[in-house]
Amino acid sequence: MFEIEDTSGRNSHSKFEDQMKLLTDQLECERETNSKLRNDIAALLLLQESLVKSGSTIEIDEADQTSQKPSNDGGAGEEAKPMDVN
Fold this sequence. Notes:
The chain has helices spanning 2-54, 62-67. The protein is mainly alpha-helical. Residues 57-86 are annotated as: Disordered.
């Protein structure tokens, strides 16, 4: 009976490790996406600042705005994932 419990414990531990690996990989992917988004935001803010200084303006048609609605996946083009709370 002890062997069965030991094997079951190892299987549970192995499943737990597999789940942790999967979650770690998913978290790393989300961190990369967040980093890319932060870089894009910073670039857009710099562009906005330089346009304001030069007096240029960009007008966006209402049709363009509606075509740029964020998707349910956060606009990352990937499956929706839980948000990183850290």
